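Exercise 3.2. Students should predict the tertiary structure of the chain below and write it as structure tokens, then compare their answer with the key that follows.

Predict this chain's 3D structure.
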Amino acid sequence: MGLALGRLDGALAAHLIPASRLEHEPRRARLSTGLPSLDARLAGGWPAAALVELCGRRSAGRTSVLHATLAAAIAREQTVALVDTAGAFDPRSAEAAGVVLSRLLWIRAGRLGLQAADLLIAAGGFGVVAIDFGEQAPRAPTAAWLRLRHAAERQGTMALVVALARSAGAAATTAVVLHGARPHFVVVGGPLLTSLDTRISVERERGSAPAPANDQGLSFTVRPSGPQAQ
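Answer key:
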């Protein structure tokens, strides 16, 4: 019995990582979301080379955060792609938010969104590949999400899944959820939406300290010309 335990201890020791080494492990690089307050909440931004989720109901500011993230990536001179499964992408509002359309690869993929994203990431060279499911709930087995995450890590690409609710589960490194948008209007020949106040909470952040139990997220304002974090 003692001999068997000794062999087991030796086998386990071969796979252990000393705490001193963990202290010197490089931290995962971060990519700006385009929103300073959200960047601060995420310790610098979205994790690079990872699968991340951005979720929220209609008019919660989901599309504005997506546009801000794409614009920030283009400003870093990264190659970016958007897989549009619901045909909801509006080039004019994206351009108003700072997305340089000539630098964006836009693919309308319908139900083949995950497969299209897989192909793009496998091709290499993309800093960000976003998959926008609109108001649809993406349905895929856990293996599909894990495959997407591993491809993102291998190619150094951030795969951003934008959807109504969380779907990737534990395969996602980070999950940001938008809650309870409150619109503000002015009347100029008719009602005009000027801003949205939205609560942001981080429901998953692998590798970071957990959020305090009383964390109520963040508030920011989204304007038609682009998001302005507050």
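Discussion points: The chain has seven helices and eleven strands. The first helix runs from residue 2 to 13.
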